[in-house]
Amino acid sequence: MRERTLELKLVKETRKRGGVALKFVSPSFSGMPDRLVLLPHQVMGFVEVKAPGEKPRPLQKSRHAMLREMGFPVFVLDHSDEIPVILDQITHAQDGKGGEAQ
After folding, report:
1. Per the confidence metrics, is the pTM higher than 0.85?
2. φ, ψ of residue 34 in degrees (nearest 5)
């Protein structure tokens, strides 16, 4: 599955849960995750979308670590089966029942 197809599935599944998966672009701060997932009840997380089997680049890993240190959940998505799991973890990240970032 291509990265773009996977990204569109994430957007669609996020919408089904009443949220949005915004394309996140930061021209002055490279390496940030691809999507900012916003869900009801002030819940948010970041998702880096990769083609199956692909891994984040070193700069991306550094940015993910920085965000996690600040308390934000960050996930790497490379297979469509992971979408519901990631969305569940983002949903529960702030209530102490989940959100362990990958």
Report:
1. yes
2. -70, -40
